[in-house]
Amino acid sequence: MPYWRILKWCLLFSILVWFFAGTLFSSIRASFESCFGLASSRMASTIAGTSPYETKAVGQHKSTLIFFHGLGDQGVGWSQILSIHLNKLGVKVVCPNAASRPVTLNFGMQMPAWYDLKGLSPNSEEDAPGIASATEYAHSLIQKELSQGIPADKIFIGGFSMGGALAIHAGLTFSAKLAGIVSLSGFLLQRDTVEGLISANKQTPAFLGHGRNDPLVPLTFGQMTEAKLKTFNPNVTFKTYNCDHSTTEEEIADVAAFVQKQIN
Questions:
Q1: Could you give the strand order of the β-sheet that contains 180-184, starting from the edge strand earlier in sequence?
Q2: Exactly one of 116, 127, 214, 254 is catalytic; which is it?
Q3: Lowest model confidence (mean pLDDT) among 15-29, 102-116, 191-205
Q4: Is 147 a catalytic residue?
Q5: 26, 79, 100, 161: which is the annotated catalytic residue?
Q6: Annotated catalytic residue 210
Q7: For the chain, what is the domain count?
Q8: Which of 207, 214, 220, 243 is the most buried (most CB within 10 A)?
Q9: Per the residue annotation, which of 14, 185, 245, 254 is the catalytic one?
Q10: What is the pLDDT of residue 45?
Q11: For a pLDDT cut of 90, what percent of the chain falls above it?
Q12: CATH number of the domain that 17 lies in?
């Protein structure tokens, strides 16, 4: 079975598992840690869970892609898929893990999420404090790469679904110009106000990919995001794929081509 189909079913399965078991699991874990005095790395932050999955560049470390997973997921699957295409280009891949939190869309049950998601329509109320905290965390990961000698214009930020939305927002609002922004099946957060927050990344190259049959984040969301970004950024590429709320080998190859173009 192709790996992008495996990823799709893993995403759906993980959402179902967290939907039915998230609250119970969190309660058991909290009781266990309280009883034995253990500190879980997942509880170290309300945003970040366990340490990010990282795969090293092959040969010279030329660039870094920081990629945020979607709702109910973790970074390991994306790390495995992206590293196949990007490590050989000299790109280090960093895939963070979100901490579990109550999600309104999930009837308040806990699941890995970068911020609260209150609905799946363009007019749904947004979690402004949560988005701000997640953006701050994303910026801290960029700063970590800067401290390790990778210049900002060699750092990409990307993500899938709510992670793609976070990547767009954090990428646009970072204080130094980045190499590029990648959003797969994503959408634009705070679309009425975000332009006023942008300084260095108003024309940073952006790649947007979207499944033509996506039932969760419809294609129209991607088209709206493209249209809004192009009002101030001519360097936006938007491509669609024959899939639902998932990815394809073609899409990942296009991401790799986009990254390679920017770093060469």
A1: 53-55, 91-95, 63-68, 155-160, 180-184, 206-211, 236-241
A2: 214
A3: 15-29
A4: no
A5: 161
A6: no
A7: 1
A8: 207
A9: 245
A10: 57
A11: 79
A12: 3.40.50.1820
